[in-house]
Amino acid sequence: MPNLVEINNVEKSYVKAGGNFSSSRVKVLKGVTFAIEEGLCVGLIGESGSGKSTLSRLILGLEKPDKGAVLIEGQPVPEWIKANQGKMSVVFQDYTSSVNPKYTIKETIAEPIRAMNYAGNLEDRIDALLAKVSLSPDLKDRYPHELSGGQVQRVCIARAISTNPRFIVLDEAISSLDVSVQTQVMNLLHQLRLEMKMTYLFVAHDLQAVAHLCNKIVFLYRGEVVEQLMSADLVNAQNEYAKSLLASVIPFDV
Ligand SMILES: Nc1ncnc2c1ncn2[C@@H]1O[C@H](COP(=O)(O)OP(=O)(O)OP(=O)(O)O)[C@@H](O)[C@H]1O
């Protein structure tokens, strides 16, 4: 499988709160290197503050690395985005703040479709997208606060796939959901990935979820990649942090 995304020796630091000198910068990513292969779900796991969201923002082109490069199909992210409108999407953890409370479900999903000057029938497109995420078209005219958390996250997924993306960054996308709903949404994401031949970066702090959904897992510890393994090879982890996480996971086939 060719690499869709390459993260090459990426460094990123921020000014420490309260400090204004270069010495008071905090290095969040310290030479991160890994690839996201086309068609795979790659999991990025790490404890709070390890730099996962920073890395997501660099991949989404929202920020630039200080050193190193993030390339998509060999191109720097901003260039790739310009040439591939709608082909990269994102789903965030906090679904309540990632939808506009004043927009109906229909308007929420329509926004990126309209931005791409869609020529087809918008109502039909929205109905088809709702069906894809197993939501009734009757929900179209409701507002986000009239839906459950799981339903709103499905709306966010419908919006994310509305432009037929090739690549989706799922940044803690299921972390705020109840465990039973998490499983349903994970299954939905898995099914959609295969059906639409998409590539995922699945960012999470919960190894169980990552191992369930992902083909490859990258362990980030204090801004460094300390281990990367295919899911089938997790038992071969060498790094102590990765091993400690693996030890805390309940065996899958008990
Ligand atoms: N814009 C910013 N300015 C200053 N510091 C920042 C900024 N963004 C992130 N940081 C710092 O960088 C470090 C890594 O943050 P990041 O959000 O990437 O971690 P994370 O692994 O996603 O954590 P979590 O799982 O808690 O979201 C933290 O110490 C954070 O305070």
TrEMBL record:
Keywords: ATP-binding, Nucleotide-binding, Transport
Family recorded in the similarity comment: Belongs to the ABC transporter superfamily.
Pfam family, one: ABC_tran
InterPro entries: AAA+_ATPase, ABC_transp_ATP-bind, ABC_transporter-like_ATP-bd, P-loop_NTPase
GO MF annotation: an example: ATP hydrolysis activity
Protein name: Nickel transport ATP-binding protein NikE (TC 3.A.1.5.3)
GO biological process: transmembrane transport
Keyword Nucleus annotated: no
SMART domains to which the protein is assigned, alphabetical: AAA (SM00382)
PROSITE patterns: ABC_TRANSPORTER_2
Residue ranges of domain ABC transporter in the record: 5-247
